[in-house]
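During the second half of the funding period, the structural biology subgroup turned its attention to how the target accommodates small molecules. The most pressing case was arginine, which had performed well in the primary screen but for which no bound structure existed. We therefore specified the complex as follows and requested a full 3D prediction, including the ligand pose.
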Amino acid sequence: MKMWGGRFSRETNPGFLEFTSSVGFDARLYPYDLACGKAWAGALRLAGVLSPAEEDDIKEALGRIDEEFRNESFEFEPADEDIHTAVERRLVEMVGPAGGKLRTGRSRNDQVATDTRLLVMDRCPVVTEGLRALQEALIARAGDTLDVVVPGHTHLQQAQPVLLAHLLLAFVYMFERDVQRVEEARGRADSMTLGSAAFAGTGVDVDRELLARELGFSRPCPNSVDGVSDRDFVCDTLYAISMVMVHLSRLSEQVVLWCSQEFGLLELDDRWATGSSIMPQKKNPDAAELVRGKSGRVIGDLVAVLTILKGLPLAYNRDLQEDKEPLFDALDTVTGCLHVMERTIDTMSLDRERARELVEGGLMTATDLADFLAEKGMEFPRAHEIVGQVVTYCLREGKGLTDLTTDELGRFSALLDSEALRWLSVEESLARRGCLGGTSPRETARQLESARRMVSGHKPL
Ligand code: ARG
């Protein structure tokens, strides 16, 4: 059924109709469109536009349409331009011309904005759930690796020894900020557009406050022009999701690196890894790679909607129909990625022996030696210089810092004695980093406890 046509004297070109149609992707708005329809029927009855019997008939038919969608018996017709048209067409088929009264004082412009807001409000908590599950998996892994030391990197060069748990917790805190952003995005969507009609506001006497509460919104939007044309809530949601994807991508990169033979720290569970069609020895971290790749796609979704919005004059423009595919794509993608990452983290195994090998015999406690000299009163630039010479010596001799004797150390400064040698040990290096947020076993255990409380909804310690 066409919702317009009175002023046209020729039929729409069928190919063009297909070009303008959005039903192929906006059909998933049906639960929200039906909920809005029911609420609007109530508002129209209160305003005297519908009789109580008409209101009942319409609401009952909308319930049956819901059933049809759910058991997949709803049949679309070629002229169903979008989900709103399809629902109205079916409603009129069911209750007769009175069904058409539901369009009074309402426009697809305020309908689509309200439906989309309801979808965002529904789907954001699903993203939060996925984030929570992943945080819990990371926390569980951190809990059973509190004694595992690994090389920490800057510039992907071995830098300082850290606890693996400390690194895993870094991701837990990133995802915590993501939870906040996703919740904020939900809050942005929580403003009801219905009652804005095409853009100037509905001519029917409706109580928009009441309507908002009925639909689960905290408030109606305060300006009808803004209501139908604003999609910044879509961008807020896409940004929050993009940030989740960026964090997932970084975690993926870490997993990919740690799974390589060169690191050899992790092995993926067979159920969450893939092989090669030609190289029989391969076990590939495709899940992590795909998550990393999909982050590009979601960032693209955000950029697409920002670009769609940037030149739009007030109020509604059909360009806005293009917001839906990126939004739906990002929501689906992030939900799938969160699940796959959670399973990957939960099932991977760690090679503790290899972690020890990677940490031992290196140069990663050079900073500790400089700190030692600084503690003895030497100015840090001088200490840095001296330790640089110690490092050059180690490289030439093919030794690690902990292989040095007191004698060897003493050649570089009279301050370097047997106590300095102790400062070079990995255990001491970690233990000294007990500042808030540092990598000492005690402090990392405290962070872990704090993160556990944070994720379970309690105030962090
Ligand atoms: N399907 C459209 C959208 O997603 C809503 C229809 C508004 N069309 C119109 N001609 N006013 O934005």
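Two results from this model are relevant to the next phase. The chain has three domains: 12-104, 109-146+159-353, 358-455. DSSP finds 19 helices and four strands in the chain.
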